[in-house]
Known about the structure:
Number of domains: 1
Radius of gyration: 32 Å
Amino acid sequence: MKNYKLLLKLLQKRNDLGITLTELLVALVISGIVLTATTSGFINILRANQNVNSKSDQLTSLSRTLVYIQEDIKQAISVEATSATAGGECDSTDVDSVNCLKLTYATTNNDDGSGGIIPSCDVPDAITYYGYQDISSSDSIWFKPGILRRKTFTKVRDDKTTSDRSDDTCSVAESNWITVADGLISVNEDDPTDFPIDFPTPDGTIASDDFCSQNDTNWTGSDAIYGADSSGFGGFRFCLEENNDENRLVRIFLYGNIINGDPIQVDVVTFARAGQN
């Protein structure tokens, strides 16, 4: 009985004293470990979700751009690569591409009403250019580091009178450069032509091939890939089918910028349909 009373007194005394410093430190360490692990896992989930959303948004944006370009090309009668020059229609002061993608449209509405041709109207109805620009060091509102730009020259006919068309004249209206895609890789990143590109073979399997070489299509090859800057970099590429009579088939590649990861690649093979028999 005496031992029981003594034990009870000791327990009451310990409860009055509370927990020891050692016990408090152990509890804090355990709580810190659990909290750190929980927070770290939550942050990793957020980062992974953000990365997935970023890639998904970029892929959607680039795919829409390809559809937009494809519709442009379908309305053209020819596609070609044209050199960028200062003050030219593909102005090297506005784009970093050594070559622009040039789309030429049909020539219509050029008659004088009596079987003749009006010289100033005997030009294509429109010519469109696509070129890449690096905006890494600019204050542009577009998503850096690179953008794809588009510019169009459109024929405008001036009807002098309603009865006589022979005195009509035509002029060319020049649009401003507009941005059709942003967030492309910069000229300081790896050349995307080094990345493997897979093509479907006739039997349905996937085979890795050169940048612009597909089945029996006579592409211009790796030594004639256009759209890059003077050092061969940037997020826009295209190659053409070699054809001396007419250039209608084109393959276009866009490379979206993803931090700490390979660029997102989208591409399309399309051809100019207008004017075909």
